[in-house]
Structures are given as C-alpha cells and as structure tokens.
Design a protein that fits this description.
Layout (H helix, E strand, L loop, with lengths): L1 H18 L22 E16 L3 E17 L4 E18 L3 H4 L3 E22 L10 E17 L6 E19 L4 E9 L2 E9 L4 E6 L7 E9 L9 E9 L9 E10 L1
Antiparallel strand pairs: 1-2, 1-12, 2-3, 3-4, 4-5, 5-6, 6-7, 6-8, 7-10, 8-9, 10-11, 11-12
C-alpha cells in the first residue's frame, strides 16, 4: 500500500497545487514609494530587508509561503512632481502544505515542504497630487498617485521523497493607487497607502524529472486590494530626505472566499 501511495504522490500533489496556483504567487512584497513629497530633482536609493507570509486554507488543503529577502529600490524624482522607480528582490522561499483529504489513502494527513530561491522585480511611475505649505520647522504633508507593474519568480524543491519534486512559478501583477505622508513630528511621519492590484498572469510548472505538470491563469481579481502603512523615522531632522522606513502591508480580501491572505514587512533606509 505504501508503494502505491508513493507512486500516486506526484500526480495527486500536483493536482492539488495546480488547483490553487494563484494562491502561492503574489508579486506584492514592498511598499509603493520611498518618498511621497516630490518637489526636487533627485535620485534616491533604498536597500531593505523583506519578509512575507502568504496563506491559503480550504476544506482539503492548507498552503503557506514564507519569504525572506534583500531588496533594492531606485527612485528618480523631478522637481515637476513626477518620477519613476525600479527595484529588484532576491531571497529564499519556503512552501509548506498539508493535504487533509488524503488521510484515508496514506494513513495520515500528508505534508510537503519545498525550499528554494525567489526573484522579484518592479517598475513604477508616479505623480504628486498635493503638498501642504512648507515651514522651517515641519516637513510638508503630501499625497502621490502611482501605477506599477510587478513580477515574482521562484524555484523550489522538495527532497523528502524518493523523487525530487520541483516547483517553478512566474507571476505578474499590475496596480494603481496612492500614498500619503503625514508629518507628525520632527523625527516621524506616518504614511498610509492602498492600491488595486489585478493579477495579469500566473504560470506554474510542477512535478519530477520524469513527470511535469503545467498550468497558467490569466487576468483575475482574486486579491483586488493591498493596503499598508509605513512609519518613517528621520534620524537627522534638518535632513528631510534620508529616513528609516518600517513598512507593514497586506491583502485581506479574497474574492474566491478560500481563506487567502498576505502579510509582508519591510525594513529599509532611504538616502
């Protein structure tokens, strides 16, 4: 019986994962902007550390994706109030899953853990909509809109069985939204934001060296909205450019009502 179960493991697991391919592919692991007030021609750099957790729960399947990585964002700004941003993320990923509906076949709930690497990229254009009057003692408040295109690629393996199971995914999302900065102290700003983020395409390849399964999903709004807030700490109050950023963002709406959610945090420094 165990040999039969192991023989069936690859196609059964592949079917389960492919059924929920978009639930483990979300290209939204960083805040939208590293500066909100755009009134001078400047180039800013932001290295950061990213961590994220994304989960899906159904009657038969629980999946969790854990991400840890390093990120770089470059942001060019014009004194006319517009700019562009490009960025890249490189890190590690861990995918764990439990298949409770297969306990009769295997004698227990089955689990899988795949580890691998991920690469993320993003491009964003933005325009400042509003800025409060400035003073010598306080940074101005501001509101900036943006559009973006983001991608996430990861490659993971599970060596816990007789054959190596491989998982490769590529997803692309778009977005349109806005971010505000409210200066509440010489040292601190609070920056809330939100954006609509349709998924443009997700492709997935899963299986072993001998058996491969492919699946893709086109435009959808399974996780239509991402919201978050940044706390920006200005260590040198007379310098309104350099700051430490503590970012928290998430997507808590699942239009398919299957328990999907995403939480991410970013710690960075803009200079």
């Amino acid at each position: 019986m165990k040999d039969i179960a192991r023989f069936l493991w690859t196609p059964i697991l592949a079917f389960c994962v492919l059924t929920f391919e978009t639930s483990i592919s979300n290209a939204s692991y960083s805040p939208p902007l590293t500066r909100v007030r755009i009134d001078e021609t400047r180039l800013h750099h932001t290295p950061s550390y990213v961590f994220a957790s994304q989960t899906t729960a159904t009657n038969s399947l629980d999946i969790n994706l854990q991400v840890n990585g390093l990120q770089y964002l470059g942001q060019f700004e014009s004194r006319h109030g517009y700019g562009i941003q490009v960025g890249a993320t490189l890190g590690t990923s861990e995918i764990t899953g439990t298949f409770s509906n297969l306990s009769d076949l295997f004698g227990q709930d089955l689990s899988v853990s795949a580890n691998g690497i991920l690469f993320g990229w993003q491009a964003r254009a933005y325009y400042m909509l509003w800025e409060s009057e400035s003073s010598e003692n306080q940074r101005p408040h501001a509101l900036t809109s943006f559009v973006n295109l983001r991608g996430l690629i990861y490659d993971a393996e599970d060596r816990g069985y007789r054959q190596t199971l491989q998982l490769r995914s590529n997803s692309v999302t778009a977005g349109v939204g806005a971010m505000a900065e409210f200066s509440i102290h010489d040292y601190i700003s609070i920056c809330p934001y939100a954006w609509l983020t349709p998924n443009l395409n997700t492709s997935l390849t899963y299986g072993t060296e001998n058996v491969q399964f492919d699946s893709s999903r086109s435009f959808n709004l399974r996780n239509p909205l991402i919201v978050g807030v940044d706390v920006w700490i200005y260590p040198f109050p007379n310098n309104w450019e350099d700051h430490i950023s503590l970012s928290f963002l998430g997507s808590f709406i699942d239009t398919e009502d299957k328990g999907e959610n995403l939480f991410a945090g970013v710690i960075g420094y803009t200079f």
